[in-house]
From TrEMBL:
Residue ranges of domain PgaA membrane beta barrel in the record: 169-462
NCBIfam families reported in the protein's UniProt record: PGA_TPR_OMP
Protein name (record): Outer membrane protein PgaA
Pfam families associated with the record: PgaA_barrel
InterPro entries for this protein: PGA_export_porin_PgaA, PgaA_barrel, TPR-like_helical_dom_sf
Source organism (scientific name): Escherichia coli
């Protein structure tokens, strides 16, 4: 008769192996459990058989290993089969919802948790998973109520401790810094040795859905005529609720020794787990190139986009933007960007990134780069390699490369090449920071010119 290991010891062994990032070891424990545990056990002295919890636990481990190994389709298939073959098992339904959440489907996860709630409404694991789903759906009050309940009942439970940490971090203030700096540039848009920096501080949440913010922006670049500098002082409010995000901003834009008021209204709406629409209206738009502003040209813009998200392995977005320049130029831009995952493992993810871009302008004799028509096709690949991870702390490096073509009216078609290398760290849930070195060579008015620059960003909760 196969040897049956005590359930508690089995879980301890599996969890320890998984937390040490030893995925082959976790899979070995899983396969050993499945191979040595029959689906049913016979009660001594009777012909009656009962389900073997150890066998069931082994198959649950199989889903968990797949989830943490970045094989989410396999994790979903296994978890769904277990949950629907044992509809009375609340734990399996919760595990299935967790996988749906990991795949970026919080509403589907919410539906599964509603089904699980019928069995035991106040189960700790159920309420923890419901709180995580509420956070993703921006149901802040629901997340707070659930978290308070489980902390009161099981404050030492590891899942409860992790959830409480996430809610505490959500309630902190937030600093965002993002920008780029040119190292060696020949392109006409931003100038040589250009700098672009934006720093914004968000307040802690106010009345669940609101946050105030204030910040500063700076951009400069050296052009043939002389240096261009733009400074921005900005403030605004943000609204976050289920399916909706809105942000309104007022900015004081300083350039050419003038102060002019700018404004921005941005928002998006989620129809479901797959479809999102968004838009942005901007007065004194940041879509106007720095060189145009250096020459006294400003503009207002409108943007709209649609995003389709299948799962973590496939998504596409289409956007349209219109900019009305003060020199009578009008610019239309249409772009399509996508992501197709072609490889995933515990430490390496490779994505194919198709990209199309079309631009059209009605004025041609302008002091800034302004093609009559241009069309770019630049497919690229991106590889994310996890160098180190310990619980919520991680360090990864990102490689990217793309080759395509750019067509410009009156100048024909030429090659576009792109390379990038970056690193990113996440620390203790409060710091997420990265920097990427980009090199690009592309045609401008028939001449291929290169641009070497660094992009960086950081989010810090405090």
């Amino acid at each position: 008769m196969p040897r049956i290991y005590p359930m508690k010891n089995l879980r301890i062994s599996f969890t320890a192996t998984l937390e040490s990032e030893n995925y082959p070891g976790a899979l070995t424990v899983t396969q050993h459990t499945i191979n040595t545990s029959p689906p049913f056990l016979r009660l001594m002295g009777t012909p009656t058989s009962i389900p073997n919890d150890t066998w069931l636990q082994g198959h649950s481990f199989l889903s968990t290993v797949a989830k943490y190994s970045n094989d989410l389709p396999q994790a979903e298939m296994t978890a769904r089969e277990l949950a629907y073959n044992a509809p009375g098992n609340q734990g399996l339904r919760i595990d299935y919802a967790s996988v749906l959440q990991a795949r970026g489907w919080p509403r589907a996860a919410e539906n599964e948790l509603k089904k699980a709630e019928v069995i035991e409404p106040r189960n700790i694991n159920l309420e923890v998973e419901q709180a995580w789903t509420a956070l993703t759906l921006q149901e802040w009050q629901q997340a707070a109520v659930l978290t308070h309940d489980v902390v009161e009942r099981e404050p030492q439970d590891p899942g409860v401790v992790r959830l409480k940490r996430a809610v505490d971090v959500h309630n902190l203030a937030e600093l965002r810094i993002a920008g780029s700096t040119g190292i060696d540039a020949e392109g006409p848009d931003s100038g040589k040795h250009d700098v672009d920096l934006t720093t914004i501080v968000y307040s802690p949440p106010l009345k669940d859905n609101w946050r105030g913010f204030a910040g500063f922006g700076y951009a400069d670049g050296q052009f043939s005529e002389e240096k261009g500098i733009v400074r921005d002082w900005l403030a605004g409010v943000e609204w976050r609720s289920r399916n909706i995000w809105l942000e309104a901003e007022y900015a004081e834009r300083v350039f050419n020794h003038e102060h002019k008021p700018g404004a921005r209204l941005s928002g998006w709406y989620d129809f479901n787990d797959n479809w999102r629409i968004g838009s942005q209206l901007e007065r004194l738009s940041h879509r106007v190139p720095l060189r145009a502003m250096k020459n006294g040209v400003t503009g207002n813009s409108a943007q709209a986009y649609v995003r389709w998200y299948q799962n973590e392995r496939r998504k596409y977005g289409v956007s349209w933007a219109f900019t009305d320049f003060s020199d009578s130029n009008q610019r239309h831009e249409v772009s399509l960007e996508g992501q197709e995952r072609i490889w995933s493992s515990p430490y390496l993810i490779v994505d194919f990134l198709p990209s199309l871009y079309y631009e059209q302008n009605i004025e041609h004799d302008t002091p800034y780069y302004n093609p009559i028509k241009t069309f770019d096709i630049v497919p690229a690949f991106e590889a994310s390699h996890l160098l180190w991870r310990s619980y919520e702390n991680s360090w990864e490096q990102i490689f990217s490369a793309g080759v395509g073509a750019s067509w410009q009216k009156h100048y024909g078609t030429d090659v576009v090449t792109q390379l990038g290398y970056g690193q990113r760290i996440s620390w203790n849930d409060v710091i997420d920071a990265g920097a990427t070195l980009h090199w690009e060579k592309r045609p401008y008015d028939g001449d291929r010119e290169h641009n070497l620059y660094v992009e960086f960003d950081m989010t810090f909760r405090f």
